[in-house]
Design brief:
298 residues, mainly alpha, 14 helices
């Protein structure tokens, strides 16, 4: 029973309380690649989908663990900081040792690599290159010497991660590298990046005080307007992809989600800070899930 409780605690820590990203949103990281190849090749490899899904979960977990470790090392996660108030923090709630957290992060990313070694044996050496790229983006979010989160580039990292995965999925299906899966996944990358932005937006006042240059801190008084910009780009990209026949005409129906997302953004500052990320994530998930359903309609 003790082991079960320990595993439960580790899962809670690695997922940041199932909030980063919201656990249900994680499928939107991998789904655009499979939708693109289903449309193009009319087939779906279930085993590959499951293996990739599990491996990406471990990559996200290791990214979260390294994030907590390096934020603590840099005195960003201090007692009373937003991240210690809105979830069960590994150091301030669970009282974990920093070396234990680092070890867990390393073990988690090694499990991720184990899955990719299997995929490499099955589908070719280039797969491990994709795996290394994913690990670099995950570790480099806060890990030394990159730490692109601390340079205001966290949003860009999330976007690149989202459009990066479909390239690998397409290689499995076609044994070739193509730019089209990347273009196909752009709307997904925009909204998934927005889920990271909302947590930075929530913490912007605290981050500004400790000189952590996240994008909302850099944007200053324009940080709220950036939400409108992200959604404008999202809906515009869908229209452009339909015009160039990369998306089908049914995907234009997804524009009906625009007023709902507008209302959500309009009321964003009225949300309880603790629930802001969760509520925002729900809207993102519903928007991307609806778009995914429309894309596979023939």
């Amino acid at each position: 029973m003790k082991i079960i409780y320990k595993i439960r605690d580790y899962v809670d820590i690695a997922s940041k309380g199932f909030k980063v990203p919201p656990i249900y949103l994680f499928f939107d990281y991998i789904i655009p690649g499979f939708i693109y190849d289903y449309i193009k090749f009319h087939k779906f490899i279930l085993l590959y989908f499951l293996i990739l899904s599990i491996s990406i979960m471990f990559l996200m977990a290791s990214t979260n663990l390294f994030d907590d470790y390096f934020d603590f090392q840099k005195n960003i996660d201090i007692d009373g900081s937003p991240t210690t108030l809105y979830r069960r923090h590994p150091f301030y709630y669970y009282k974990k040792d920093k070396h234990e957290l680092l070890l867990l992060a390393i073990i988690t990313i090694l499990i991720y690599f184990a899955f990719f070694i299997f995929l490499t044996i099955e589908y070719g050496l280039i797969i491990i290159i994709f795996g290394l790229g994913g690990a670099l983006l995950g570790y480099g979010y806060t890990g030394k010497p990159i730490g692109y989160k601390y340079r205001g580039l966290g949003l860009m990292g999330a976007f690149i991660s989202t459009i990066f995965i479909p390239l690998m999925v397409n290689y499995i299906y076609s044994n070739s590298i193509s730019i089209w899966p990347l273009i196909f996944s752009i709307p997904y990358g925009i909204l998934i990046s927005a889920t990271l932005y909302v947590s930075d937006y929530r913490d912007r006042n605290f981050d500004s005080k400790i000189n952590l240059r996240t994008l909302p801190v850099i944007l200053g008084k324009y940080s709220y307007a950036f939400f409108h910009f992200l959604f404008a780009i999202f809906y515009t990209s869908i229209i452009i992809l339909v015009v160039f026949k990369i998306y089908n005409e049914y995907s234009l129906i997804s524009l009906i989600t625009l007023p709902f997302n507008h209302i959500m953004i309009k009321n964003l500052n009225n949300f309880c800070l603790k629930d802001m990320e969760f509520i925002f994530g729900n809207f993102i998930f519903l928007s991307l899930t609806f778009l995914s359903i429309l894309l596979v309609m023939l």
